[in-house]
Amino acid sequence: MKSYADYTHFEAADFLQDAEFQAWIRRPGPERDAYWRGLVRTNTHLKPELAQARLLALGLESSWTEFSETYVEERFQRLRTETLAPAHRRESQVLPLRLRPWSRVAVAACLALLLVAGGWGYTYFFTETLAQTTYGQLQTLKLYDGSVVTLNANSRLRLPSRWDWRQTRQVWLDGEAYFSVTKQPLPTGFRKFTVHTTRLDVEVLGTRFNVYARPAKTQILLDEGRVQLRDATTRRALTLRPGQLVEYVAAVQLPVQQPAPVVARGLSAYRQNRLLFDDAPLTELARRFEEVYGLGLLFKGKSFENQRFTGELPVNNLDKAVLILAESFDGQARLEPQRVVLVAD
Question: Of the CATH numbers 3.40.190.10, 3.55.50.30, 3.40.50.2000, 1.10.10.60, which one belongs to the domain with range 273-343?
Fold first, then answer.
């Protein structure tokens, strides 16, 4: 392949006529992808030009073989000379075929369209994406590779650009999400998929699992397949089997568990718009309530002493959730700024 220095002064039209660029578009692969990725990293000014060329190439690739490079270059230079040369040169220059006034308008419109397409292409290929849910909101996302993510309320998922995704499948999670990862075969195996959290990284090939990454603790529940957890600080690895749960509180990893089916269902029930509780202490109820609805939950009254809660609350309906709690504890609910107060005798 060419030296990066050969592309320093390239524009989108130059890339479109370059044999190496055309080969990359027709037959992308790890080596070619790495080569062009390295080019834009070392020559950042080429990013919009390369993005525009790639955007156009994906739509025009099938027509390349119909015209020789000499013909394309000739037509492009003629258009470029007529539209971009200084006015006095255009007036004095005699061409076999002069552009009519209406043609110049059309050319200007086309150039403007190319500039817009270039900006859009840069955003499309080289910009990260942030998916974010508010309190009481669920969102289902389909990633670039077909993997599906269900994002729980008050959660954020950051995705790399499409360009970077072709090299490494990885996302960054703050909150809670359920992942159904699609396997992507390689000549030597499968492409790894990584979920980064503050506490640890979850590395998978193709599987289904739930990640809970909140300030209080981090939990990973594996439904299907195999995942490897890697401590973000020590880099020590731990492999989970289907049905296993691992939990980190602060900096401490608790023993790997095989939770009861009712507990396992409760950890990912938000996908069906439900929060499930099975004999949960009120401190756990209050913590989850604030995470999902964005309001504190305060209990007033002696009858709440040593109480626990079993039941379910709708994720997307705060009023109904408050009514269920009031009826469950045979009390009254009062909405105050930033919190809900449950009062019982």
Answer: 3.55.50.30
